[in-house]
Q: What sequence folds into this?
């Protein structure tokens, strides 16, 4: 059952000079083969993904060299780009929407009309507002708070990312009628067991 439909605008700023410092002796960066990879744990949830501003040739689904399920797009040499890449991601899902902070500074703002969300993850939202009209949550996670390597090498899956994920769970609301009904049934059961 569909619970949410999300539309996210994502901004990615690359720092090519910082990446060059991460190269091991004898390694060479293949800048022309740069690509943006976005891991999605449930690729079937993807409604659409498209770049804004015409960078790259478009997204393709697949696992990529890092065994990262999700979507990937070739972006060319990031040293030739003066502005950040922006793209839109649309997801359909059920119950849980999470993000793993893995940038220099991850800022993620989520809002919706769900009245009773629960917030998860090792980092609490910097802004957390809930009410009958919905919720707003915003996470600000600096790179120093996330124990991830600065560079990923190899072809194995990226272990440990799930434990760092923050997000929102859309908890089904409990109405007053059902709460009273369950309490009355439990009370009758206790009376029956006591005198039965």
A:
């Amino acid at each position: 059952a569909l619970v949410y439909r999300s539309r996210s605008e994502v901004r990615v700023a690359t720092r090519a000079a910082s990446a060059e410092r991460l190269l091991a002796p004898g390694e060479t960066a293949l800048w022309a083969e740069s690509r943006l990879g976005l891991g999605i744990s449930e690729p079937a949830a993807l409604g659409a993904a498209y770049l804004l501003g015409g960078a790259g040739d478009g997204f393709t689904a697949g696992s990529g060299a890092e065994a990262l399920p999700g979507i990937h797009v070739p972006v060319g040499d990031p040293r030739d780009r003066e502005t950040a890449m922006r793209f839109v991601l649309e997801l359909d899902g059920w119950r849980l929407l999470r993000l793993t902070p893995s940038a220099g500074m991850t800022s993620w703002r989520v809002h919706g009309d769900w009245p009773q969300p629960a917030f998860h993850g090792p980092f609490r939202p910097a802004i957390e507002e809930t009410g009958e009209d919905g919720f707003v949550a915003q996470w600000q996670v600096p790179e120093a708070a996330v124990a991830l390597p600065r560079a990923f090498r190899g072809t194995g899956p990226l272990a440990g990312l799930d434990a760092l994920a923050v997000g929102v769970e859309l908890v089904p609301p409990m109405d007053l009628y059902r709460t009273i009904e369950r309490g009355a049934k439990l009370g009758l059961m206790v009376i029956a067991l006591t005198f039965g």
Observations:
- Residues 96 and 169 are 4 Å apart (CA to CA).
